[in-house]
Design brief:
Four Helix Bundle (Hemerythrin (Met), subunit A), Rossmann fold, 434 Repressor (Amino-terminal Domain), 3 domains, eight-stranded mixed beta sheet, flat, GTP-binding, SRP54_GTPase_dom
């Protein structure tokens, strides 16, 4: 059972209780049975499921006895808490998450079996650090797998991060030392070292891993685990922990695989902290792992912290004075009624940088229902890309001058010409223009110039599900979110 299907099954079981006119022990037991069956189908260890069921049952009985308590709220809270505990090691017992230090070299060593996605994960994490302003580099110390050096160098070119590899050297310790020394001289702050893997836990792999760790003295060791192995992850993690000090674990291939839940719970049972999860093959498909946020997203409740991080990663690279000046100019144009279609095009580009829109939508509470794609559009990104193609067929005047679209006698001839150029229907062009006009109405200018803080956000807030707006901290939280996106509404004047 895929994680999304598991989340749907659990949510249906809880909703069944919420709709019930009478909530008694039989109703609770039926719900727990459905939840446990779903977890076992997702390859979660039966022992863990039985223990969790007992804890949930006892806690629900205990809290039901409190006078005036809402049974539905108790059930939702208990189910969420226990599911979080299933994928989260006990607080205080897990190793602390790695935090690189500025002004010195931080070495991160990656270990794991072959085929887990180690090399791709190295590049994904390198890109994240780069976007946060770190001087990053990668070293290929995998001298066992043919083509490992070429793969890392190819990924390095794609994300524009320097990498070191030596295809003529067969000693991984030598390659690792030379690569680290090279990048230390260049003043690199974070050096990510990719190491060899094997198809199984061989003695030779562990010996090489120990030699590398002794030679490079990494600040932390990250273990990359294939999420498709399910509950077998428990024994694999323990085997590695006995030979090397693992700082954190990255679980890969969690993009809807049937055994993902089993792998996450098995790692937590082994008392190892999961810091990231891989959700796809693209270089952006790496998320920081927050147990509560992960479970909330699985249950369709969204994951606001992950959404905020995705937004920051999408626009974080452009921190130059020029980039900030462009954002300020765009904000002023919107406030003065001069927001253009070219500005909208740039905003759509930013949205696409956030990765697949279906994954972004999953992070927003309630949005998965609002944005369910129809058969014609499929991926929600198709609509955005279609709008961008339409704008590619416009003239500079049409993109840069809002007054052009206020001349009603010329609009329809322009719409038909643009539709022919873009190879789309007239209704598609009109839909784009309708969206554009709606955006420009969000922030109407007021006399004296500028807007009061939060003014103009009301119409946008009405479009957002209440659960999301509450998690974001109301209108002020929405304003902060728009600021983090680099939105044209990011610099609301604070005066009155």
């Amino acid at each position: 059972m895929a994680l999304r299907e598991l989340g749907t099954k659990i949510k249906q079981a809880v909703d069944m209780v919420a709709r019930a006119t009478l909530v008694d022990q039989d109703t609770v037991d039926d719900m727990l049975k459905q939840i446990c069956n779903g977890l076992i189908a997702a390859d979660v260890q039966v022992k863990l499921v039985v223990q969790m069921r007992q804890r949930m049952r006892e806690r629900i009985q205990r809290e039901f006895a409190i006078p005036g308590s809402s049974k539905q709220k108790i059930i939702r809270r208990v189910v969420l808490d226990e599911l979080v505990a299933l994928v989260d090691p006990q607080p205080g017992q897990a190793n602390p998450k790695f935090s690189p230090a500025r002004g010195r070299t931080n070495v991160v060593m990656f270990v794991g079996l072959q085929g887990a996605g180690k090399t791709t994960t190295v590049a994904k994490l390198a890109l994240q650090y780069k976007r946060r302003g770190w001087k990053v580099a990668m070293v290929c110390a995998d001298t066992f797998r043919a083509g490992a050096d070429h793969q890392l160098l190819q990924l390095a070119r794609a994300i524009q991060v320097p990498a070191y590899a030596d295809g003529t050297q067969f000693d991984p310790v030598v390659v690792a030392r030379e690569g680290i020394d090279c990048f230390k001289r260049e003043g690199r702050e974070i050096i990510l070292v990719d190491t060899s893997g094997r198809h199984k836990q061989e003695a030779q792999l562990f010996e090489e891993m120990e030699q590398l760790a002794a030679a490079v003295n990494p600040d932390t060791v990250m273990y990359v685990l294939d999420g498709t192995i399910g509950q077998a992850a428990y024994d694999q993690v323990l085997a590695f922990k006995q030979r090397i000090r693992i700082g954190s674990i990255i679980v890969t291939k969690l993009d809807g695989h049937a055994r993902g839940g089993g792998a996450l719970s098995a790692v937590a049972a082994a008392n190892c902290p999961i810091t990231h999860i891989g959700t796809g093959e693209h270089v952006d498909d790496l998320e920081s792992f927050d147990p509560r946020g992960f479970i909330q997203k699985m249950l369709g409740m969204g994951n606001i912290p992950a959404l905020m991080e995705t937004m920051k990663n999408a626009v974080g690279a452009d921190t130059s004075a020029e980039g900030k000046r462009d954002s300020a100019l765009m904000a002023n144009r919107l406030l003065q009624g001069g927001f253009t279609l070219r500005d909208l095009y740039e905003q759509m580009t930013t949205i696409l940088k956030m990765g697949p829109l279906n994954k972004v939508i999953e992070m927003i509470p309630g949005m998965d229902k609002l944005f369910q794609p129809n058969e014609e559009e499929g991926d929600p990104a198709r609509k955005v890309k279609k709008f961008m193609i339409i704008m590619d067929s416009m003239t500079d005047d049409e993109l840069d001058d809002p007054e052009v679209w206020k001349k009603e006698k010329d609009v329809q001839s322009r719409v038909h010409r643009i539709a022919r150029g873009a190879g789309c229907a007239v209704t598609d062009v009109n839909a784009l223009l309708a969206n554009y006009r709606a955006i420009t109405r969000i922030a109407p200018p007021r006399r004296g110039g500028g807007l009061r803080q939060g003014q103009g956000l009301g119409p946008m807030a009405n479009l957002i599900p209440p659960a999301m707006l509450q998690q974001m901290g109301g209108l002020s939280g929405l304003q902060n979110m728009m600021r983090s996106m680099g939105s044209p509404q990011s610099n609301w004047p604070k005066g009155g």
